[in-house]
């Protein structure tokens, strides 16, 4: 079992020995892919239990009021949700499954989707960029990339006070790369999250799988990009680099 110091040493390899760091990531990706295959089979059984619960509640409505039945139904739904998230580590795509899309349009879609997830929250988005819309195209698997950014934005919203949510999203051109910076006025990342946050099942939030950052990082790395998390005086900061 890796401890906090182990993760710090692995992160240091990003700069001291990138080849070894990339090899470690490949081994980790292989392990996660194997786990996701196993989860696919387990999910089928959980889905069957969930279907039986629904049939029972339809044929015998009174059972739906039973406390133990409700716990079984809730636990099964939570299992299905967890299995679905783990399966996302199998994200893979062929070149012909990628398409050119306007990055500004993709970001706007992600922001609007996140707004709809939190209809009771007053979210103040500040969005800026230093290039024209005509120069903002990237090649990516659009559904995967959209979901990655929705996950990052959701994390930022959940880290803030619901009555005072301020998110800043800026995009700059750096030669053949886009630099995307997401800042919030939330609680920031703990030391543990700073060193382990992009690893799966790492979370300090209740009732969270700890897969959000890991999935976003996986998607971005598979698009030859990078994701780094830090803190600011006001909250947290996520820095992303993506090829144009």
Verbal overview:
Helix content is 51%, strand content 19%. It has 244 residues and is an alpha+beta fold. It folds into two domains: 4-90, no CATH class; 95-243, Heat Shock Protein 90 (2-Layer Sandwich), CATH 3.30.565. The strands form two sheets. It has a five-stranded mixed beta sheet with strand order 2-4-5-7-6. Strands 1-3 form a two-stranded antiparallel ribbon. A hairpin with a 4-residue loop joins strand 6 and strand 7. Helix 2 (18-59) runs antiparallel to helix 3, helix 4 (103-117) packs across helix 5 and helix 5 packs antiparallel against helix 7 (212-222). The protein starts with a helix and ends with a strand.
Q: What are the SSEs and their pairings?
A:
Blueprint: H1 4-16, H2 18-59, H3 67-87, E1 99-102, H4 103-117, E2 123-129, E3 137-140, H5 142-158, E4 165-174, E5 177-184, H6 191-196, H7 212-222, E6 226-231, E7 236-243
Parallel strand pairs: 2-4
Antiparallel strand pairs: 1-3, 4-5, 5-7, 6-7
Helix pairs in contact: 1-2, 2-3, 4-5, 5-7
